[in-house]
């Protein structure tokens, strides 16, 4: 039987794949301690598995949420191994383990790490496997390994024309030691990476075979709907399960943190009962909190006198006392939610002996730790089947839905329960990118160059949501206080040459749950800084492109993307009649992205015609997917910049669904032109770096059209769209 090209189908996922016979498995890390840990747990944690039929399976550590990570990782592995690209299979591990963890110590799909972090380890594992197969073939044929090549699933001896399929060599290769330092293929032999190939998951999604969390079905499965506290910091005070016990299909009402899950024979029955459930919630100090209150707290943070420095270059005093032309501005951004196309859901079968989940998640280790804390589920008794994700964007790194589903399952004797949030639950009881304010002050010399800049951020620290304590880190490393990379990215690491540069963060704690939103702090800091750079250029009477370029001497990558986007957009030529241009460039997640927005403003109407994007992400493993990610980033970021916000009234979110938190419509989407700049840079991320430059480039285009600065997002609060 011909192997399936990609193994994550409903049939394979629901029935389970049973491996029989011998198989050559090569894990990523080969330490004795790791191998013993895997053996003790009774789990296979290989990255490459080849059985005696010749089936090659790649066990990949990164969730596939539409970013194409599995395809890119498989390209790296298949190319180095010499596998037949048309017949590989892809699986994901069912238990988090050291081999699958990023440097943060967790198995998570975040930070645009999918390719840049895993490229070298995956390639090395594939080279080890190839050398083992080659050595086995050399022994059988009585030739030197150097005379053999691995091609399309075979070891080939060109001189004699003999070929041996991988499957025939598995048992011999299993007896060989894993080479510690394998020889990688020369770059000239790398023909699969660096070119566009079709996504492995696309056929399954087109035919409907792809398994998302909402598709999971288990024998005897029940359904759960949630009723959660409307005020984020509240909890259940009382609830009366009997109030819905007689409603059609209701099986149980299960208490969960901050709410309850109604379990029924169908989700609609569960949802109707959850809405009707008699339940009260505790009062909290946040019951009267509003967006106006939050903004007042943030503004107070801007004015505080006791805020420590988080980032310092040069002389701090000079940023406030330097002589020259002074440019000052204040900016702000609202809370944003994620609006994943597939709402939060999880199917669980849970008992004291074993908990098994089916979930589209970015955070397998987060789920493990959440269940350990909430239910004392030991790691060795937890199994996570990661489905495709209908969007993630950072929201699906959290694990509260797993606790709800596991508790619901235990509440009905361990039967499988699929808990699905309604869209309104996801928006009103979700988690958000933090709201922030920023005050910037720059001093320009007689030549219009920035000699000093002082920046004050005011708002929450995202890192605290992940147990990241900036003060502990400062004491341990000797760094400046309040340094939270989840909040300061895009400022603390900005690439411009400014002799005296200070960033301060006035921390404002809010009783609102936070969650990374695609590109996290670079989204708002990119808007603040690149908009302000445009203000400085205007104050100096200089062209925005020339002004930026003059402030980054020696920054080869930044200059390269600026030069390329200028060429693409014909920046040096007058814009077409009625069109205004705006420029921005941001480095994030190891990549540099410059964008030019072309827009039209007429009688209060504002429309984006085209966006030019130049990205340096190092070697593009799959150029077509890089282009697709840039196009998607523009659409995502443009929707947020134009109209999206979450506002708070009486301690709860006012928005609830697409009617009051609008995504960009097809008719609003601009044309997008993408160019990949390859100048030999290290590998960078792709999924997130396309987001940060859009909002400032858009605001700068609006200024070019109207001479009015928009410093507070979304733009719909200021102009008609």
Describe, in plain words, how this protein is organized in 3D.
A seven-stranded mixed β-sheet has the order 10-11-8-18-15-16-17. Strands 13-21-20-19-14 form a five-stranded mixed β-sheet. A four-stranded mixed β-sheet has the order 1-2-3-4, covered by helices on one side. The protein starts with 9 loop residues before the first helix and ends in a 15-residue tail after the last helix. It is an alpha+beta fold. The model is unreliable at 1-20 and 28-35 (pLDDT under 50). It folds into three domains: 10-207, Aldehyde oxidase/xanthine dehydrogenase, molybdopterin binding domain (Aldehyde Oxidoreductase, domain 4); 213-284 and 344-420, 2-Layer Sandwich (Aldehyde Oxidoreductase, domain 4), CATH 3.30.365; 292-335 and 433-717, Aldehyde oxidase/xanthine dehydrogenase, molybdopterin binding domain (Aldehyde Oxidoreductase, domain 4, 2-Layer Sandwich). It contains 19 helices and 27 strands. Helix content is 29%, strand content 22%.
